[in-house]
Design brief:
Blueprint lengths: L8 E4 L3 H12 L4 E5 L3 H11 L5 E2 L10 E4 L6 H11 L7 E4 L18 E7 L6 H8 L3 E6 L1 H13 L3 E4 L5 H11 L1 H14 L14 H14 L1 H4 L3 H4 L2 H14 L4 H17 L5 H12 L2 H6 L1
Helix pairs in contact: 1-2, 1-4, 11-13, 12-13
Length: about 300
């Protein structure tokens, strides 16, 4: 990885993530030798986006000359794709195999224990709604790296050239790490959607748009990251306003019963956070927890 000439790269699985990473690597001087996909038309479109239109192919054997083979398929296809690659393509001993899965360790690419190629898991902690958005978001993004020392060293150079920062994790913790990433990304999106569903009909004459929550969401996220969750936490639970919590649950039960369990679980987690911040007394915490833990029948009997 050290020197003037950048190693060549082949991409298998030119989806949004693969397109963004490979396009940025091409801009940084990495020669692109193949862009391999199952659908000819979609692969050609991805190659045009990357800036390597002539490299589009459905033939995995075109990966053979590459120094680095980036496998950006879905998680469920990684092992099968790696096996096909190792069985059918004459790879060089120094070829680096890289996948971008947050879930799987690098070893998923090891088709056999004695294969000489180095393997690397290089996962960006970022969302990819499109190739264009992904390219913009990778600058300053953190990547987790997992693999042997030589693979990690090469990964650090790749991440640096992508404009990101890297940190190392161990393969045995990949599933836990990925759960955290999903909670911080996918579940926030779902939570925002749920909040929008509760808010939208609050004006019977005109739906309230989701965008009005934007400044609140951005400030809450920024405060959580800069101040830490314990300091950033605000709202009725950390204030000990048990009557407010009970009112919320009553309204959700009446108008959004499918969201009651979500509110209860998040509320209990918030009680724990508020108490760890030393701003919610044990007595108030217990009272709010009891309200949040009540079943529908128990709330009806109150």
């Amino acid at each position: 990885m050290i020197g003037c000439a950048k190693p060549s790269v082949a991409l298998i699985g030119p989806g949004r993530l693969g397109q963004a990473v490979t396009a940025l690597l091409r801009q940084q001087g990495y020669p692109i030798t193949a862009i391999v996909g199952r659908d000819r038309q979609r692969t050609a479109e991805a190659a045009r986006f990357i800036g390597a239109e002539l490299m589009a192919t459905t033939d995995i054997n075109r990966c053979a000359p590459a120094d680095i083979i980036l496998i950006a398929t879905t998680d469920d296809q990684l092992a099968t794709t790696a096996a096909q690659l190792c069985d059918t393509v004459p790879l060089g001993d120094s070829t680096l195999l890289v996948h971008c899965s947050g879930l799987h360790p690098a070893q998923v690419l090891k088709h056999s224990a004695d294969m000489p190629q180095h393997v690397l898991a290089m996962h960006p902690l970022q969302t990819f709604a499109s190739g264009e958005q992904g390219m913009k978001s990778l600058a300053g993004c953190f990547f987790s790296l997992e693999g042997d020392s030589q693979a990690v060293e090469q990964g650090q150079q790749l991440v640096s050239d992508l404009g990101g920062e890297s940190f190392i994790i161990e393969g045995q913790y990949k599933a836990r790490y990925h759960a955290a990433a999903c909670m911080a990304s996918n579940f926030i999106t779902t939570l925002i959607d749920s909040a929008g569903e509760v808010l939208r009909p609050c004006n019977p004459q005109q739906d309230i748009p989701l965008s009005v929550l934007g400044p609140l969401i951005r400030t809450a996220v920024e405060n959580s990251l800069t101040l830490g969750p314990k300091t950033a936490l605000t709202g009725p639970i950390v204030r000990g306003d048990d009557g407010t919590v009970a009112s919320h649950l009553e309204q959700l039960k009446r108008h959004h019963p499918d969201l009651v369990a979500l509110y209860q679980q998040l509320g209990l987690q918030t009680v724990d956070l508020a108490q760890r911040s030393n701003r919610l007394s044990a007595a108030k915490g217990e009272k709010i927890s009891n309200i949040l833990s009540q079943s529908d029948d128990e709330r009806d009997s109150d």
